[in-house]
Amino acid sequence: MTKLEALEEEIKKLSPAEFGQLRDWLFDQDWLQWDQQIEQDSASGKLDSLFDEAQREHLAGKSTKF
Length: 66
Prior knowledge:
Elements: H1 3-12, H2 16-44, H3 48-59
């Protein structure tokens, strides 16, 4: 049995309240990893081309306030 399969079996045993806590924790972890990846990509310059494109579009009057 893999680690994931063992975790799945344990998750099935959780009460609804415990499952809700786990779900919330997983969502928080997912957002944390996403934020870390964006920070790494920004620091490494991977997002520079997107920023440059957005800035060109804005200067060309193609952006709007929302």
